[in-house]
Amino acid sequence: MSDDLNFVERARREKLAAIEAQGVTPFAYSFERTHTAAEALALAPAGSDEGASVRVAGRLVAWRGHGKTIFAHLADLSGRIQLYFRRDHMGEAAFALLEQLDIGDLVGVAGPVFRTRTGEITVKADEVTLLAKSLRPLPLGKEEVVDGQTVRHGALEDSEQRSRQRYADLAVHPEARALFVARSRLVSAIRTYLDGLGYLEVETPVLQPLYGGAAAKPFTTTHNALDMQLYLRIADELYLKRLIVGGMERVYEIGHDFRNEGIDRTHNPEFTMLEFYEAYADYTTMMSRVEALLLRAAEAVRSVPEVAPRVPELKPPFPRISWADSLNRALGADAMAMGDAELREAARRIGVERVESLSRPKVLDEMFQALVESKIDSPTFVIDYPVELSPLAKPKRGNPAMTERFELFARGKELANAFSELNDPIDQRARFEAQARLRAAGDEEASGVDEDYLRAMEYGMPPTGGVGIGIDRLVMYLTETANIRDVILFPTLRPE
RNA sequence: GCGCCGUUAGCUCAAUUGGCAGAGCAAGUGACUCUUAAUCACUAGGUUGUAGGUUCGAUUCCUACACGGCGCACCA
């Protein structure tokens, strides 16, 4: 921002000085609010009489002066309400202060609620208190109501500025506030659900000496005093399962994971992950947990009226299709049975790029993504993944080439990933070593051997079901939001 | 990382073939005691993303860069 104030900002600073010159403090300490805008609207008297008096507070978002009267609108989190100022009612001095007010100022207004001639519920101001002067013009558009729909003109359209200056976006767009209210309700509903099942919410390290639990490139940082390289976690998984070993039985964590990858519509370098683990459960139990959790999440989001119409109807139980069967059916051949050359040729045919550089499991995974995953629209569990793709999952009963793992897909995107957790330390060591070989061969996303985790598992880990759900993606799905940036309050951006 | 598109007043957008950079809202002054995208009159507001180049003349054409959007790649 330029140091030179533009003419609008200069005018506002002049008003600020004029207010101070009158002995009025332009930045108040508090205001005793008795009603939100929505609560005040609900007090509307039937006829033309004046109803109860209220004290409302919020931001001035519209202003229509008429000489000796003024109409304005005040917005708070609950909505907006019209204000009516009359000189003969307020008195000369109080009315004169209104000349120093601007759209964007935070004010408190006290007075009775009444209906105007046109029927709009309005607060007739007995007095106004300036709570904070706005020195920078907010891009507040004008609103009109056409056929019951609010149409906004102007306002802040630039999506970069909306993300960068989220405070302005939120101040100007009630629907942006509603989306984040919905997100908050969703997280709250998830906590309520898991707490109700006896889960404990825990916190595990963000700074980790070894990273694991997912296939991703980490961020690195340094601890000066320990002179040690640390990684920002890419998943919570391995620490939460250590807690299962310790007898915590049911634990969950909602927190940020960090992955050092490109930024696009569905990826932000830090994102919110829910993981929950339940001792003595397997992946079938976790499927029903996920169904119940999603229903409650959808319900929570639907409780926000501005967002409700976009929330899809969820009808559990969701269909369950096998990973291998669905891939083979889409391919018209048995992919797992194919020789390596044949498999790579098939992958190339369906458009998988740089097939030569991929490991065999990666080729299968790419084929599955292209043929099956991207085409799933309504919520569907894909179950039983190849063991090579799932180094932390238990082998499938009766088929050790596969694991007891499921992913939930909707609109072509992954919503949940879960498995019967591998609790055999000998098998786990072998899996880690296989990963370490991939890593040595140049796979930057393969994990290493986590000896401490193996030590934990050697003490004895109960059979456990575990689930990971990306909260940002879930919010996107439930609110039909196309860009992850729009569901994260402060997404990662290049500096201005 | 690659391709395409974009960047003009605080906000939303114009500007013909390369020919004086414009409008609405917001702002200022004035009028107006039930308006609601209030209305009316007047006024002010610009280093056209940055740096170069071509040209008598560049918002416009060219090059590079910055930032962004979309697509691709990457990303269970």
Describe this structure in words.
This protein has 496 residues and is an alpha+beta fold. It has 2 domains: 131 residues, Nucleic acid-binding proteins (OB fold (Dihydrolipoamide Acetyltransferase, E2P), Beta Barrel); 255 residues, 2-Layer Sandwich (BirA Bifunctional Protein, domain 2), CATH 3.30.930.10. The protein contains 15 helices and 20 strands. The strands form 4 sheets. Strands 9, 13, 14, 15, 16, 17, 18, 19 and 20 form a 9-stranded mixed sheet that branches. The protein has a 5-stranded mixed beta barrel with strand order 1-2-3-5-4. Helix 6 packs across helix 7, helix 11 packs parallel to helix 12 and helix 13 runs antiparallel to helix 14. The structure holds one RNA strand of 76 nucleotides.
Distance between the termini: 10 Å
Structural class designation? alpha+beta
CATH superfamily of the largest domain: Bira Bifunctional Protein, Domain 2
Describe the main β-sheet briefly.
Answer: 9 strands, mixed
Strand content: 25-35%
Low-confidence stretches: none
The number of helices is 15
Q: Assign an overall shape.
A: elongated
Helix content: 25-40%
- Specify Rg, calculated over alpha carbons: 29 Å
Topology:
Blueprint: H1 7-21, H2 37-41, E1 53-65, E2 69-76, E3 79-86, H3 87-90, H4 92-97, E4 106-115, E5 121-124, E6 127-132, E7 142-146, E8 149-153, H5 159-164, H6 166-172, H7 174-196, E9 200-201, E10 207-208, E11 220-223, E12 228-232, H8 237-245, E13 250-258, E14 270-279, H9 283-302, E15 320-322, H10 323-331, H11 340-349, H12 360-371, E16 380-386, E17 395-396, E18 399-410, E19 413-420, H13 425-440, H14 451-458, E20 464-470, H15 471-479
Parallel strand pairs: 3-5, 9-13, 15-16
Antiparallel strand pairs: 1-2, 1-4, 2-3, 4-5, 4-6, 7-8, 10-12, 11-12, 13-14, 14-20, 16-18, 17-18, 18-19, 19-20
Helix pairs in contact: 6-7, 7-9, 11-12, 13-14
The protein binds one RNA strand of 76 nucleotides through helix 1, strand 1, strand 2, strand 3 and strand 7.
